[in-house]
Amino acid sequence: MPAIRVIPCLDVADGRVVKGVQFENLKDSGDPVELASKYYLQGADEVTFLDVAATNENRGTMLEMVTKCAEQIFIPLTVGGGIRSVEDVSKLLKSGADKVSVGSAGIANPKLLEEIATEHGSQVLVISLDLKRAATKSGFGVTSHGGKQLTDLDAMDWVRQVQDLGAGELLINSIDADGTRDGFDIDLIGRIRKISKVPIIASGGAGKVEHFVEAAQAGADALLAASVFHEGLISIAEVKSALKSAGVEVR
Fold first, then answer.
1. What's the helix, strand, coil split of the chain in %, to 5?
2. What is the pLDDT of residues 8-24, one digit of tens each?
3. Is 97 domain-assigned?
4. What's the average model confidence in pLDDT over 209-229?
5. Cβ-count burial of 197 within 10 angstroms (0-12 exposed, 13-18 middle, 19+ buried)?
């Protein structure tokens, strides 16, 4: 198995990094360019930049900020939010992104995912899955618009579909666990692991280093967190040390 990746996430709104609980009550956490640079120097394997307001505000991602982040770090940069066309992806890649994260737009137009994978390759396409417990076949539903709208899609059916459309990675955001610091949704990770042929990024719920170990052992290929890093409660080095102590290979 490849080494586990540790990924800080920068949720950006109005040019600032923000963080809330279950996608609500967002609070300022700092400057995205400064934080991206700090995490790169601290040993992050990748950085994810999500313009959390772009879809709801019906606009594209802030390209200038993406470029500034890309100039400061020399590790993969994944960017999401407001992507509605292959042209949007092309602009982000030219601005310095290495991968793009697509959520709501793919739900509205699944063909877009296939077009992105065909034009730029599956390695560029990360599917953002904002999932929550719901009255669906699997017990998990798919939401859109930053977790605000519950669709009629079953999570496991959608996971299978996006893989057929060319997904290169799956970013599993557990809305139920998001910001709670009670741990990643291990049940959700394990169930998606069983049907996924591509790498899984676990997101939502990290509160202590043991949670990262649990998610890795449940089948995640990468571990993403935001507030615990932004507030200095846990460092990237501490996460990697805990993983290594548990016998999990890290970079």
1. 35, 30, 35
2. 999 887 777 776 554 45
3. yes
4. 97
5. exposed
Six-digit token string for 202: 């676990």
User: Domain with 230 in it: what CATH number?
Assistant: 3.20.20.70
Q: Per-residue DSSP letters for 27-43?
A: EEEE-HHHHHHHHHHTT
The residues, any chain, with a CB within 8 Å of residue 28's CB and separated by 6 or more, are 16, 17, 18
Catalytic residues: 11, 130
Query: End-to-end CA distance of the chain, in Å?
Result: 12
In sequence order, the β-bridge partners of residue 174 are 131
Residue 251 lies in a domain: no
Q: Is the pTM of this model over 0.85?
A: yes
Amino acid letter for position 158 = W
Rounded CA gap, 251 and 241, in Å? 11
Residues sharing a CB contact under 8 Å with residue 193, sequence separation 6 or more, in sequence order: 200, 218, 219, 220
Q: What is the pLDDT of residues 49-94, one digit of tens each?
A: 988 665 555 555 678 889 999 999 999 999 998 899 999 999 999 9
Question: Domain residues for 14?
Answer: 5-245
Look at the chain and report how many structural domains it folds into.
1
Residues 78-115, buried b or exposed e (16+ Cβ, 10 A)?
bbbbbbbeeebbebbbebbbbbbbbbbbbbeeeebbbb
Q: Does 191 fall in a domain?
A: yes
